[in-house]
Amino acid sequence: MVRNNRKMPKVLASVLAASLAFGSIGYAAPLAIENGKSSYSQDQKIVARVNAELAIEHIKYLSQEIGTRPGGLEGEKKAADYIAKTLQGYGYDVEYQYFPVADQFIANVAFADGTVWEMGAAPNGKVSDSSVKADVVYVEGGLNSSDFSNVSGKIVLLARATSTTDYRTQVEKAVQAGATGVILQSLVGSRGNYGQTFNPNLTAKYDVPVFGASYIHGEWLKEKLEQGPVEINLTAKHYSDLKSVNVIATKEAKSKSKDTKEVILGAHHDSVVGAPGANDNASGVGLMLELARVYKGYNTDKTLKFIAFGSEERGLLGSRYYVDQLTQERRDQIEAVFVPDMVATNYDKAKNLYAMTPDGSKNVVTDSTGAAGARLGNSDILPGKFGSSDHVPFHNAGIPAALFIWMGIDSWDPLVYHIEKVYHTPQDTIEDNISAERMQSALDVIGSGLFDVIRKEVPANYK
Asked: What would the pLDDT profile of 193-215 be if each residue is shown by its tens digit?
């Protein structure tokens, strides 16, 4: 999920009203709940078949076998190929949709044991395949020349100053003192989230590499220094003429006409620099692929598309591009867009699965999943207002869309919301940040709600 740097608008944290479950869109009242599962036959077509462990296998491949997946780079392309082959294996027709993205400046920090950390590089620092090899020293402060008494020939680690102006001063003074490289450690955010990697924004040009590390990278490096001297190799590369990609799988309606509607389940497959992106958003892709496996066996009167969006983390670029290519006629055919983003976190404060729209309004997506949650006896699903994922371009084009995300809201202050501390960091891994239970809950609710929207019409007395 792309970070929204503005203060979040008020989130609607009340439990879904009964009218959501049984109201205007005409869903039947829930039948008996057996062993925590709805006995409604249509729900059972989904909940009896979806398997969180299978979804997590996809998360494992994307986050561990491939790793970081910055938009436009090789990791994202490998993810796209994996998704395409998986969907083709299920029998779907698959196409790639390429689009241009801006340059990337990527840094690598290599250790003697072969470990490599990915960070952001300053475009105005040294960007070269040739490495800078030296011992690391940690410097407190860094706004005064006296802080750099013994850094000549060393790589300097600094906790970056809060303002851009001040961290530029830190870099300037380190270089003046003879540092051969500078690593700026990101800060802990205002909500307690660990800071992510970044590209330091420098005005002066330097002939030494200047890297932006995540907060946890800095902490790990300090821990290594406590054990003794640490030597590292710094390299950086400027990637240009980049293309990102959307992967689109289509299941045509059983009987298609000019009036046939279309429903989309889409999740972004990229990650931020330096993060393996297990929850953000290999979890959304894993959910999408698992539902694609299950849905392939059912006929529907609506066309269903599964879309893996590229470069969401770079500004919703894949979903924006997809929507921009649609004619008005094509937009009018889309009945609903379901967007799972960060749907499997184990973070204890992210207590509820939210169905979010950019303006907090309800639509067929929020209504169908809310009704499914009520039938399933699942009180986790709540409505909300959130504008930082791939549902936004569809909403702005007048297409009903909603984001699904696990989050926690403080009832005493709805402007305080909880996303896991390791969001956008190297710790967004299966071990640190994935819950099979929450993945199963998301599969059940989203899968059942989606099925209500796309399923083949049946007689009114059919149960």
From this structure: 899 999 999 999 999 999 999 99
C-beta separation of 174 from 151 below 8 A: yes
Rounded-to-integer distance, Cα 301 and Cα 276, Å: 38
- CB of 317 within 8 A of CB of 71? yes
How far is the C-alpha of 395 from the C-alpha of 418, rounded, in Å?
24
Banded pLDDT at 455 (limits 50, 70, 90) = confident
Amino acid at 463: K
Query: Which pTM value belongs to this model?
Result: 0.90
CA 35-39-44 angle, to 5 degrees, is: 100
Measure the CA–CA gap between 150 and 163, rounded to whole angstroms.
25
282 by DSSP, 3-state: which? Answer: helix
Written as six digits, the tokens of 333 are 């055919």
Residue type, 138: Y
- Provide the β-strand partners of residue 110: 116, 233
What span, in angstroms and rounded, lies between the C-alpha atoms of 222 and 160?
14
**Structure confidence by residue, pLDDT tens digits, 378-403:** 767 899 898 999 999 999 999 999 99
> Cβ–Cβ contacts within 10 Å for residue 261, how many?
16
Q: Which helix (H) or strand (E) holds 159?
A: strand 155-159
Contact 197, 274 (CB under 8 A): yes
Tokens matching residue 303: 């066309």
Beta strands in 14-124 (DSSP E): 33-34, 37-38, 93-101, 104-111, 116-121
